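Supplementary notes for students who missed Thursday's class. We covered one full example, reproduced here. Read the sequence, then the structure, then the short commentary at the end.
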Amino acid sequence: MLKDEIAIVTGSSRGIGKEIAKKLAEQGMKLTIVGSSSQIAETAEELKIMGYPNVLPVQADVTKEEDMIAVVDKTIETYGSVDLLVNNAGVGFFKLTEEVSLEEWKKVFEVNVQGVFLATKAVLPHMKKRKAGTIINISSDVARYTIPNGAAYTATKYAVQGFSGSVAQEVREYGIRVGTVNPGMVDTYFAESTQGLPEKKDWLKVEDIANAVVYMASAPKYMMIDEIILHPFAQQYPIA
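Structure (token representation):
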């Protein structure tokens, strides 16, 4: 279903984004992987060593409009089109609201919300022209309920959820699908944590999120999957 299609994955130097890139490559997709540091080139080399030659690494800042336009342009120049955009880049922290600095507040919104907006805005003209495409935004289960000490992060995920729903309605007449994958607790590097800690053994794994992305992207073109929410059994969370 996805073989020879082209995907852009942001925030793919490590963690969830890296695993998403790997799973899409396994499906035979050609990739542009995007990261904010030079580590993105190392990730591309790892994927090529695994046997996936069609990987274009681009070091870019998702908060800068010119960078995201350049990512889309380079992808089209290299592969000819863009079939899938996965907005995965994100940051987060957990603090009492009065302890959050304005700089921290701005940063989390710039990456988590502005980054999704800019990448989506950059790719939409191309997808509209082709009358096809899929955009998957990696959000969070806290896009559906609130948690203490997470006002900034939670607010960004509510924003991503609202943005995704509105864009989905705008572009459906062009055959473009927009959906979100909303994970609960994942064993990754989120919030400056370390992947693989013993206390995270029962959390979701990065491959669980990547498999959800593949499932959503692989849906028949007549099908639109609006949202996938997944949690580990170990997590307690409100039932909506």
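Commentary. The mean pLDDT is 95. Residues 143 and 184 are 10 Å apart (CA to CA). If anything here is unclear, bring it to office hours.
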